[in-house]
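Hi,

Apologies if this is the wrong queue. I'm a grad student, and the batch job for Formylmethanofuran dehydrogenase subunit C from Methanotorris formicicus Mc-S-70 produced an output file that my downstream script rejects. I'm not sure whether the problem is my script or the file. Here is the sequence I used:
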Amino acid sequence: MQVILTPKETPDISIEADVITPDNFTNKSKGEIESLLVWQGPNKYPISEFFDVEVGSDDSEDVTIITDSVITRILSLLALYCTL
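Support response: The file is valid. Your script probably expects a header line. Output copied below for reference.
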C-alpha cells in the first residue's frame, strides 16, 4: 500500500505529526487516515486539514509513505518512514 501526502500549504504554526507512520496507516482506509489527529499548538486537527491524502495499492502488505514536495514546519515526521 502506498500513501501519498501532499501538503495543502505551509502551516503558520508547526504541527506535530507523529501519527504519520506506516504502523498507524496499516489496514486503514483513506478516510481513516484522513481522520487521524495531529497537534498544532494546543489543538488537534485531522491530517486532512494539512494534507491531501491519496491511497494506492501496489500489491504489497508494507505501507510506503510518499510526499511529493518538501514538508516544512512539521515536527516528528521521521525520515525513516518516508520516501521524499
